Automatic annotation (TrEMBL):
Keywords assigned by UniProt, alphabetized: Membrane, Transmembrane, Transmembrane helix
All residue ranges annotated as the NfeD-like C-terminal domain in the record: 85-142
Record lineage: Bacteria, Bacillati, Actinomycetota, Actinomycetes, Kitasatosporales
TM region positions: 6-23, 53-71
Pfam families reported for this sequence: NfeD
Full protein name: NfeD family protein
Main location: membrane
Subcellular location as annotated: Membrane
InterPro entries attached to this UniProt entry: Membrane_assoc_protease, NA-bd_OB-fold, NfeD-like_C
Bilayer topology annotation: Multi-pass membrane protein
Length: 143
């Protein structure tokens, strides 16, 4: 076993670190694996054991220090893609039949919706563009 080069051992270590990465889904193991690959490159270039270990530690710690905060920030963010009736809020619609505080019809996202005005004293005539404020059941509240 002494005739195997150090870079091969580093590649074996990188592959071995890939196993717990897949099993536990902890990205830190992947970062250690990248550090092992960097150490293998260092060994392949003829550097000594101390340099190899330093490269492994520096690359691994740097990746953890940089990637983990970014991943945590992305994990904490709420999804930006609204779906269902939430996706209709804020969209524009065209009035098909007069809309006032008691009702009317609009064309919203290619569909005909019943609608009522947010301000009960306001009325919108056919052909006007309105903004959807909220969806109340099957009725769009517009302004």
């Amino acid at each position: 076993m002494n005739d195997i080069d150090a870079w091969v051992w580093w590649l074996v270590a990188a592959a071995a670190l890939g196993i717990p990465l897949v099993v536990t889904a902890m990205p830190e193991f992947g970062m250690f694996g990248v550090g092992a690959i960097a150490a293998a490159v260092t060994a392949g270039l003829g550097a000594g054991v101390v340099a190899q270990v330093l490269v492994f530690v520096i690359v691994s710690v740097a990746l953890i220090a940089v990637v983990r905060p970014i991943a945590a920030r992305h994990r904490a963010q709420q999804p930006h893609m609204a779906s269902g009736v939430d996706a209709l809020k804020g969209r524009q619609a065209v009035v098909l039949e007069r809309v006032d505080g008691s009702g009317g019809r609009i064309k919203l996202a290619g569909e005909v919706w019943s609608a009522r005005a947010l301000d009960t004293g306001r009325a919108f005539e056919a052909g006007e563009e309105v903004d959807v404020v909220e969806i109340d059941g099957a009725t769009a509240v517009v302004m």
